[in-house]
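> call design_seq(struct)
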């Protein structure tokens, strides 16, 4: 009996020695330690989202976002920061944006043609609405009609959760495929001030908390009501997604005498710095969970707006490509409709009516902060992703997108082209982030194999 104990002790000692590398790998892999179980505030499991996104959604979005309708985003890069004077600009050449000239655009986006097309659509819809109510009062004066038009425009504006650049005279088209989101070297005080302003001044925070960290510790989120938690998780998830992109397409070499465009690729060390428990006071894995939350929230917005989006023409002036885009959208929306576990917006705003107004104003401020970003390329992608999330919130909470199946959706409201472009690109960014998490997991596992070959054989 005693000899058996000695043998077991020896075996245990060998096991510990052989597996010490495994436990070290677990420490390195702690970014993913909380990515299991149900997504917070939702009913769907994380592994279900991984499978659904990586196999069904990501490949479709990747192809769709290469279509001309979605690759050109109109943005104002000249608007001044409304909150502070900032002379700290990104000095790296990779911060610059390659804008589109008239000759670079699809025929349907050139000059006033595209604006006229959408303006005509809106006017026709307004005429249809007016005709419906002509029997009620046909004696409105010209001034009264103008006042009603102004009221309608005001009502539409109050439904928006973000500032939209599309109609600004200083706005210009940017080709998103030629200006991909990636690490540009924009960091330091200027970049930190952006997130400080978002988290400390615009996120709801526990009333009696003395914690002045940028983030809210996951353990005290329960002190917030559901709507406040949703706001924080959405912002945190967006932030996590952006940090994942920057780690996945990182500037590995800036040798001007080699590749003038730089050498880009995944940076595992940077990813671990941004998300490991050790470097984030234990919060990094929770931020990645919030990425899954905002993904499900925006996915629900696409599903809810499907009856409207299926009727959109996706007009660029190229008839064949426009038809292909319509078919690709219908295919994507069909797949999303068969995924039942999106975020449920009906549980929101059933109590305090002022909370919805406060929620919307906080997010509008977040969209204004994007004008303070000192890196032009970062500003493009910051504006696009906040506008995409803002459009999702508008679809979910404005009330105008309810019961679309029972109404002529083209008659009741109008999403601007930029809102549709931002919405689909934003879910594309979140989808890519979740897909890239698998790449980082594999990199960590391969790192473990190389270090401790005897464990994984």
């Amino acid at each position: 009996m005693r000899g058996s104990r000695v043998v077991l002790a020896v075996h245990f000692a060998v096991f510990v020695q052989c597996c010490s590398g495994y436990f070290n790998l677990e420490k390195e892999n702690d970014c993913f330690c909380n990515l299991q179980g149900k997504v917070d505030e939702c009913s769907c499991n994380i592994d279900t989202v991984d499978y659904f996104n990586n196999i069904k959604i990501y490949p479709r979005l990747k192809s769709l976002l290469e279509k001309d309708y979605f690759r050109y985003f109109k943005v104002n890069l000249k608007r001044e920061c409304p909150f502070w004077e900032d002379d700290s600009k990104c000095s790296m050449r990779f911060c610059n944006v390659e804008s589109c000239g008239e000759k670079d655009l699809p025929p349907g986006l050139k000059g006033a043609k595209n604006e006229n097309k959408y303006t005509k659509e809106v006017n026709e819809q307004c005429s249809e609405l007016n005709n419906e109510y002509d029997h009620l009062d046909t004696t409105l004066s010209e001034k009264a009609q103008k006042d009603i038009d102004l009221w309608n425009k005001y009502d539409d504006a109050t439904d928006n959760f973000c500032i939209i650049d599309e109609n600004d005279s200083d706005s210009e088209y940017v080709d998103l495929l030629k200006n991909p989101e990636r690490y540009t070297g924009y960091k330091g005080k200027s970049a930190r001030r952006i997130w400080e302003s978002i988290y400390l001044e615009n996120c709801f925070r526990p009333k009696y908390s003395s914690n002045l960290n940028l983030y809210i510790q996951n353990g005290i989120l329960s002190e917030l009501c559901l709507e406040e938690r949703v706001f924080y998780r959405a912002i945190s998830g967006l932030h996590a997604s952006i940090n994942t992109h920057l780690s996945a397409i990182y500037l590995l070499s800036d040798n001007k005498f080699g590749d003038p465009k730089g050498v880009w690729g995944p940076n595992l060390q940077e990813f671990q710095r941004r998300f490991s428990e050790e470097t984030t006071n234990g919060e990094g894995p929770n931020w990645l969970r919030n990425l899954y939350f905002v993904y499900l929230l925006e996915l629900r917005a696409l599903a809810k707006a499907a009856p409207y989006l299926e009727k959109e023409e996706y007009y660029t002036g190229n008839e064949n490509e426009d038809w292909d885009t319509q078919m690709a959208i219908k295919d994507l929306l069909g797949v999303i409709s068969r995924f039942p576990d999106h975020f449920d917006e009906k549980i929101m705003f059933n109590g305090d009516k002022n909370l919805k107004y406060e929620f919307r104003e906080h997010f509008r401020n977040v969209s204004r902060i994007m004008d303070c970003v000192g890196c032009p390329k970062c500003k493009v992608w910051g504006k696009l992703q906040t506008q995409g999330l803002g459009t999702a919130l508008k679809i979910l909470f404005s009330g105008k997108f309810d019961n679309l199946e029972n109404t002529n959706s083209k008659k009741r409201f109008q999403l601007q082209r930029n809102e549709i472009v931002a919405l689909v690109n934003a879910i594309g960014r979140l989808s890519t982030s979740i897909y890239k998490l698998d790449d980082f997991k594999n990199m960590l596992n391969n790192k473990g194999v190389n270090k401790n070959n005897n464990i994984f054989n």
